[in-house]
Amino acid sequence: MSVIHQKLTPKQKALAINLDSSIYGTFAEIGAGQETVRYFFRAGAASQTIAKAMSAYDKDFSDAIYGKETKNRYVTQNRLRKMLRYEVGLVEERISRDNNPGKKFFSYANTVTTINFDKTMKGHGWVGIRYQLSENEDYNEIVIHVKFNDNDATLQQETLGALGVNLIYGAFYYADNPRRLIDSLYDELSTDRVEIDMIDFSGPCFEYVDNRLMSLQLVKKGMTDAVIFNSEGNNMLPADILYKKNIFAVRGSFRPVTKVNIDMFVNGLDMFLKDVGCTNEDTQVLFEITIANLRADGDIDERDFLDRVDVLAKLGYTIMISNFSEYYRMVDYFSAYTNQNIGVAMGVNNLLDVFDEEYYKNLSGGILEAFGKFFKKDMRVYLYPYKDATTGDLLTSENLKVQSNLKELYKYFKLNKRIVDIKDYNPQFLEIYSRDVLKKINCHECGWEEQLPKGVAEIIKDRGMFGYKEVSLID
Predict the structure, then answer these.
(1) The organism sits in which domain of life (predicted)?
(2) pTM, whole model, 2 decimals?
């Protein structure tokens, strides 16, 4: 299918789909009216495209069609996928392929909740399409999660309608270019109106698509502030894994992850669990990398990005990629999902950045506003010591020096145990510096393997990560 390069309005896109006699399917929309299919009806020539449009609003009726949901939750990914597969199954069952040669079947669905009357909940939902690119091909699926930013239910409905049209059009016309497909979701829309914080591609058309890279695009393009994926590489909805959880985060470049990172994490987490009286089961651990870190050497190197997250995944960790260059923004983000305890492990140099007023020039309230968000809800910093490579001096919370006008503020947080030192660290690891490890890997020097967690050196060598293979080939 040829790609149409000019940017079309949702109405024009709906008409283009309607005029393609090979595209045929159903619309099932729950929670915000039939806002997407409305575009197709109004565009004209819809009779050869729309097999059925429906809204099973009543829960009992919906359950009779798609089955019951655990905990009676209907605005879920599981519900959406059930809808997509059930509706496609009906098309396959009821429409003869013999009498409809060349038809590419699809089902589009959404299950959403818009802003409530009191405006205390903004609204969110799941939107997806299950479709074929040829009549003999297996089905592909694209599923996204959206958060509405409009402050009016009618506006949110209009946003959902345009987004749905963009998704359907992109699925058929941009399937060979997922990045362009993602960009096209915002045609005639903006991030001020809707946020996309999860996307998942599957099926034969997307066999070689890495959903982690697609998640990266969402953050890189400013479509969301953060994305999360687990150690299997699956995109996770932040609300699903952070809601009402204790959260413990470690920020780093992880290029590559070293024994220092793991020592900081393990001992910091152990202190956090004891301090707040929680368990591993009710605590979500995140290894966080910022977009600013990924861009440290210019534009984002996607191979380098995958190298970092593959190593963390091998160690079994959940990874968050964020736009939060400042720590307080990360904590503020967590606080939107949980009222439980939050802990952050960091090194001395990072804490010095936190207490640097230059860090907060963009805030009208300056550093005090930032600290109000950073140290909210009893958030604790678990500080890993730093050994100066030149002098051999050990820096901890007890002897680091902050700006003179912030000394009393620093003392306050220390006295209230909002900043605590990690005590049970391994002194031998203090002489491991990630920049030196990376240099040794690039230069094919000896000894770097012992500075990394077990199994990490092997994966770096096997897959030629961080420049290892390229250098070894020259040798």
Answers:
(1) Bacteria
(2) 0.92
